Amino acid sequence: MDPALVPVIQAAIAGTVAITVPAIAFRFALRQDRLRWWREQRALLYADLLAEAYAERQEFELLILDSEIRDQAMRHYVDTHLPPAERAKLGARGTALGSQEVNKLFNQLQSGMAQRSLVQVRDEGERIQHRMWVAGAVERLEAAIRREMGGDRSK
């Protein structure tokens, strides 16, 4: 090999490395930023979903009370549901950003509570059964969110 070509080859390698390494680093940083944004959006979404689920559970608890007790409890009840337009946006954000599992569990919780709130509760045993179902559904939703967001992992 001609000794005069060695500096040219070295310069070509150095130029390639000087261009390639920053490009790879930029793509990696861009990917990390995209993943961070996605995770932040999901965290906000899941906090809103849980807040709405808790509001649903609170209202459900009120609806299955005896009428006499319900009238007394209504004086202290504060409705924490989202307004309808905000609730629709929450549903759209859930579809766009949420996982299938979390969306499924949230929708099951809401539909299950809606069905149970229409049933006339005859006695305390039925009330307990309904409360247990709701508590289990909320617990499954919380567990799915914690699993997905890594909330149960130790640091």
Protein architecture, described:
- The protein has a domain at 43-149.
- The chain contains five helices and no strands.
- The protein has helices spanning 5-63, 67-74, 84-97, 100-118, 124-149.
- Helix 1 runs parallel beside helix 4 (100-118), helix 1 packs antiparallel against helix 5 and helix 4 (100-118) runs antiparallel to helix 5.
- The model has no long low-confidence stretch (mean pLDDT 90).
Radius of gyration: 27 Å
In what range is the share of β-strand residues? Answer: under 5%
| Helix fraction bin | over 70%
Number of helices: 5
State the major sheet: none
Low-confidence stretches: none
| Sheet/helix structural class | mainly alpha
Shape: rod-shaped
Distance between the termini: 56 Å
Element-by-element helix/strand order? HHHHH
Please tell me the overall pLDDT: 90
Counted beta strands: 0
